[in-house]
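S1.2 Input.
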Amino acid sequence: MKKTFSLLLVLAACGASAGEFVEKFAGKNLSPQDWMVTYAAQCAGVDYRKPLQGKLVIDGLKKIRGQEAVAFLDRDANFTAGDFRLTVRLEAAPAPTGAGAWRFQLLTENGELLLGAALKSDGGRITVAGECGHSCKTLKDRPIPGGALRGVLEIVRKKGLYQVLFQGKSVYEGDGDTAAAASFRLQVSGAPGVLTLTELSLRNLR
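S1.3 Output.
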């Protein structure tokens, strides 16, 4: 009986950790188990507000020293396989001057891009676009331009077919890799403005 119970506990633990995530943005800081700054060039990392209080507010980058400044926040995607949907509920206010971007990227175990979505800020305007992965073939590319944004950004994969949507409208479609998503990356480059995330989730489609 003890052996059976122990096995059930192991299986339950594996099931809980295998694939998917829902980020709560709780606590004083981003959990070091799930989030970390993995790389910074010409800056001192991502500048985000603390405590989180249910949302992640990114003011840009710390101590920018060059026009090519970029930094990442990485989150373990637990090798989410098959068909999935990444959902981001966000608000984005572009910087009045200057330029930069926020990129939402799903990566393979080797760190290669499966598919990404980008909010590109330039001169007070933001363009929502899809970004092709390392083995992706673009089928449709329809970036959406605008000012300040508020809504839901989604990256969907169904049997190797990708879609990037904003407010339910297709921004990008591509035929891509079916490898599992090992990690999620939020990349900040330049001086795009202020980004607020209130929901971030990666779930299998059933």
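S1.4 Remarks. Helices lie at 2-17.
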